[in-house]
Amino acid sequence: MRWVSLPDFSSRPRLITIIAAGAMTGVSCWLRSNALLLAPFLALALPFLLPPGKRLKYAIAFVVAGTVVFCPITIRNWIVFDRFIPLSVGSGITMVEGIGDYDKAKRFGMPADDRESKWKDVEWHNRPDYAEGLWKPDGIERDRYRFSRGLEVIRWNPGWFAGVMLRRAGSMLRYNDSISQGWPGDTARVPVVSAEPSFGHRLSQSTKDAPVWSTSAAELLAFGSALSPQSSCLPEEDGQTIRVAGDNSDFGDQFASAPILVDPNTDYLLKIPVKLISGRMAAKVTSEDRRTMLASHLIRETEEDEQRSRRKAKKATDDEEVGDENDSREQSQTADDRAGQQRTYALMPFSSGDRSAVRFVVSNNGTSLDRSTAEIGTPELFAFGKTPQQWSRVVRPAVRGFQRNVYTTSHMLPMVAMGIILLAIAGRWRELLIILAVPAYYLCVQSAFHTEYRYILAIHYFLFVLAAVTLYLGGAFLLSGLGRVSVALRRSRLRAD
Fold first, then answer.
1. How do residues 32-91 score in pLDDT, each as one tens digit?
2. Which residues contact 422 (CB under 8 A, 6 or more apart)?
3. Contact status, residue 115 vs residue 100, Cβ threshold 8 Å
4. Residues of the chain with CATH 2.60.120.260
């Protein structure tokens, strides 16, 4: 078979082409700041693609073009903030949260999420007013201090951090698989397209009607069940809510209701009052066997909880007399806080599919310093009618089958690796360098910071090319082999005649 050649750019390079390519890297910086060093990194590959005499000149032009395109952001930052900020602040928080993600034992005292970062700022600077948000007040100074704290951990633990970077780079190369790595490694996993259509109605049209099912908190607890020996599910004093306290797992299910009867292929909305007490928790609607999640809701702190947390931070820095006064104030506001919980609802729309029963489930939702605990009120189920878009059942099996049988780590990575080997055997080193340059940048640079899968999606547009090389050549060799077999059979037939 014949390879399709790229234009002979290396022998006749054009400066305008180099400048345009560099400008495009600058455009990418307007979209995400983690592309800041992409132009200098790619410039390192240009000497291998260009003839002698033009390498340095063209590499400089490439970097300058990218810098010129994003420098309006830098100028704006200098004028507005009176600071040199190339693109945006945030390297500090991604540095410390990246350390906190992998420091499960909390040896270094780094935060693992934005909420913990806010309270670490309060602790590090002894500034209760920093609890108001991550970036106000003194957002720039606070982020630079976070960066310095992260560098201090790296400087004293280089071997450990090198291992973190390798593990994080490995998570960037994952696709859908059954191996759980916890947060944020599991952000590479996405739900497989369902075999039946999903919820397709407007939420506003049915909640005014009476619910088709409801139960009290006491009945929810009596007929439901705790799902872990370490979790606890107890009624609250008011009799209107139950308190679910989870175990030490990251995402384990803690409580499940009794089966809730539904009609097949019908849209529903489960509405339930929730209040987060501590940690991280989520509410879900699942199939009766809990294997399939139909809807979910992240249980968040209410505004009253945020205000109470700020008062606690302020109280920690006051003297004993002021602290006693704040304690009294806390007690007087307990009733108001409890009243506020009834105004926070989890709204979970879902389609029943071919099921006749579902369950309401409460689960942990990530690593937390505190025990994950939430209060759950009286659930109500509203019906919206038959699920629309039933025609999509025809195409869903094909998409679902591709996700489950091809778009997985165990299949995609071998195809990518084989594509690299095939291009190398064919001597296509220039093409291989062009394809691998961008993935190499993200694997080397982004692995030093907190990384969710959405931050590095750009690398897979290149890796898919390598997988496509494997599929194309495999298909070509298969067709060629079948053709030879067919010719051989025809010849043997002719000889027999």
1. 999 999 999 999 999 998 888 889 999 999 999 999 999 999 999 999 999 999 999 999
2. 469, 470, 473
3. no
4. 203-302+344-388
Residue 140's pLDDT band (boundaries 50, 70, 90)?
A: very high
Gyration radius (Cα) of the chain, Å:
29
- CA–CA separation, 373 vs 337, rounded Å? 16
Distance CA 275, CA 431 (A): 55
Q: Report the C-alpha gap between 142 and 96 in whole angstroms.
A: 12
- Structure-block tokens of residue 422: 């095939």
Sign of dihedral through CA atoms 52, 57, 60, 64? negative
Q: Which of 196, 108, 194, 225 is nearest to 393 (CA)?
A: 196
379 near 360, Cβ under 8 Å? yes
* Residue 29: how many other CB atoms lie within 10 Å: 24
In tens, the pLDDT along 274-294 reads 999 999 999 999 999 999 899
Give phi and psi for 345, each to the nearest 5: -120, 145
Q: What is the rounded average pLDDT of the residues 442-446?
A: 95
Any idea of the CA torsion for 416, 420, 422, 424, to the nearest 10 degrees?
180
pLDDT average, residue stretch 428-446: 95
Q: How far apart are CA 410 and CA 206, in angstroms?
A: 44
- Please identify which residue in the block is written with the tokens 């089966």: 259
203-302+344-388: CATH topology = Jelly Rolls (2.60.120)
Report the distance separating Cα 235 and Cα 378, nearest Å.
12
User: What average pLDDT does this structure show over 160-166?
Assistant: 96
Q: Which helix (H) or strand (E) holds 159?
A: helix 158-172
How far apart CA 405 and CA 271 sit, in angstroms, is 36
Given a cut of 70, whether residue 497 has pLDDT beyond it is no
Which of 7-21, 354-368, 441-455 has the weakest average pLDDT?
7-21
Structural element, H or E, at residue 255: strand 253-256
Pick from 304, 281, 437: which is nearest to 361 by CA? 281
**Cα pseudo-dihedral 334, 336, 340, 342, rounded to 10:** 80
Q: Supply the pTM of this predicted model.
A: 0.71
CA angle 193, 197, 199 (to 5 degrees): 110
The amino acid at 494: L
Q: Rounded to the nearest 10 degrees, what angle do helices 429-445 and 409-425 cross at?
A: 140
Distances 429 to 14, 55, 420 between C-alpha atoms, Å:
21, 18, 10
CA atoms within 13 A on the CB side of 109: 8
Q: Give per-residue pLDDT as tens, 347-372.
A: 999 999 999 999 999 999 988 888 99
The residue among 358, 227, 340 whose CA lies nearest residue 277 is: 340
Whole-number pLDDT of residue 324: 44
